Amino acid sequence: MEVVSRHHNRSPTASQCSSSVVKHIKAPVDIVWSLIRRFDQPQKYKPFVSRCIVMGDLMIGSVREVNVKSGLPATRSTERLELLDDTERILGVAIVGGDHRLKNYSSVITVHPEVIDGRAGTQVIESFVVDVPDGNTKDETCFFVEALIKCNLKSLAEVSERMAMQDLLQV
């Protein structure tokens, strides 16, 4: 798990928080990765994203403008693709603007094959580091970001597992 230690060991400053979330998904790694790697289509599995416009060629350094559905304390987020490795299945994203309080936010998602109940499955690990906003504690900030990530990964699991079931039914 050298990939995990290389990409998920964060060193936050005193004014930042950092954490990671792990999700086990009952779908093959190729299906899960096909959704995560689409920097231009996060709304395929992220329930709070209503629209995404990419500026650039979907290479490292590309920027996307994401519109956020109501219910969150934001309406838009500007994000830059920092890392995309199809061989090791790694995606890195940094938030570079928007009308929210997540400053200096960066996350890395790695996707790993595993066996779940005797079938092909996937382990997804997402780690992040972010500044703690004025008026909030590290615990509050981490709790909020972890809750968003857990919601996104739950949705990713539902979409991936549905796609895997459709693949099985077509065989």
Helical stretch count? 3
The secondary-structure element order is HEHEEEEEEH
Largest sheet: 7 strands, antiparallel
User: In percent, how helical is the residue content?
Assistant: 25-40%
- Measure the end-to-end span: 33 Å
Low-confidence stretches: none
Assign the structural class, choosing from mainly alpha, mainly beta, alpha/beta, alpha+beta, or little secondary structure: alpha+beta
Morphology: globular
**How large is the radius of gyration?**
16 Å
Give the strand order of the largest sheet, numbering strands 1, 2, ... along the chain: 1-7-6-5-4-3-2
Structural notes for this entry:
The structure is a single chain. By secondary structure, the chain is of the alpha+beta class. Helix content is 28%, strand content 39%. The protein has 3 helices and 7 strands; from the N terminus they run αβαββββββα. The model has no long low-confidence stretch (mean pLDDT 93).
Annotation keywords:
single chain; 171 residues; alpha+beta; seven-stranded antiparallel beta sheet; 3 helices
Topology diagram in text:
Layout (H helix, E strand, L loop, with lengths): L1 H7 L7 E10 L3 H8 L12 E7 L7 E6 L7 E10 L4 E9 L7 E11 L2 E13 L6 H33 L1
Helix pairs in contact: 2-3
